[in-house]
Amino acid sequence: MAIEQMLGYLIYFLVWPSFFVLALALFRVQLTQYVIPIIVSTCIMTPVAALLQSSEILFLLTIIQPLAFLFCLMIVFRFKFFHSIMMIGLVFVYSLIAEFAYNMIVAQFNYQYFLDILQDEYIMQGFWVSFINYMTTYLIIRSRWGFTFISTRNSKIHSSAMIIQNKLYLSVLIFLASFSMISLSVYLWKDMFLFIFTSTSTILAFVLHYSYKREFHD
User: Fold this and answer.
1) CB 147 within 8 A of CB 211
2) From CA 148, how far away is CA 19, in angstroms rounded?
């Protein structure tokens, strides 16, 4: 048990920095400017994840962890609320897709076994997700890809972009509401899992669409 707990903490110290660096890279924010916030936020997210993993409310995983992540982005990194929401939406769903792909391969596309792995296994999943996130961060930086409309500075928004931005924010909020139900579907509403995950992925497409339109108007 002690060894498993140590491995768990090791995984969390690998995974959470990968979430933060990917979030920054996706929006072309200089990683070197946020080394201390990444370390501090990792120290916040790690015990939250560890306590959640050992508790009886693990079915709230996709609700509690994004809220803790939001706290870190707003308080530690000092990003704006909706910018933080955008980061959470894209980074969490990307990591979730990577995790689900790994589990589906391990389960050999057996749906019930896939759900069992989601509930019981997290060490190898953590290694895989952190690897994918770090590799994606490297590729994004190398290719200089990413959104450019997120900034810590206050800036004026052109009226032509206001409608698009409102649609973007609305789609992000709907996406997060759908995303928050994923862990509930894994533990409580197993028959609804595919529907909820498909709906979440579809809404993400709208988020990306309005993100590109918002950036184009800048």
Assistant:
1) yes
2) 18
